[in-house]
Amino acid sequence: MFTKKEPDSKKPEAQQKNNQKYSKAQFAESRQLSRIEKDILAAVLLEQKTYTLQEAQEHIQQFMNGEAQ
């Protein structure tokens, strides 16, 4: 009768969310980041550049590991 539809593992909405870029000011206003994470990003991100959430997390990790410039 009916066939079961396979779930699509790569939804465009999820990909778009992962690729969305934010400014330094937007990270400062984020409710998803702790105060310490916001402070780190304020110190290491450039004002005129935009970053994905994953890139921002990488900057935080580098800073915490002492690898930030």
From TrEMBL:
Residues 1-14 have a biased composition (Basic and acidic residues). Residues 1-28 are annotated as: Disordered. Residues 15-28 have a biased composition (Polar residues). InterPro entries: YqzN_YkzM (IPR058869). Pfam families: YqzN_YkzM. Residues 20-66 form the YqzN/YkzM domain. This is YqzN/YkzM domain-containing protein. It comes from Paenibacillus taichungensis.
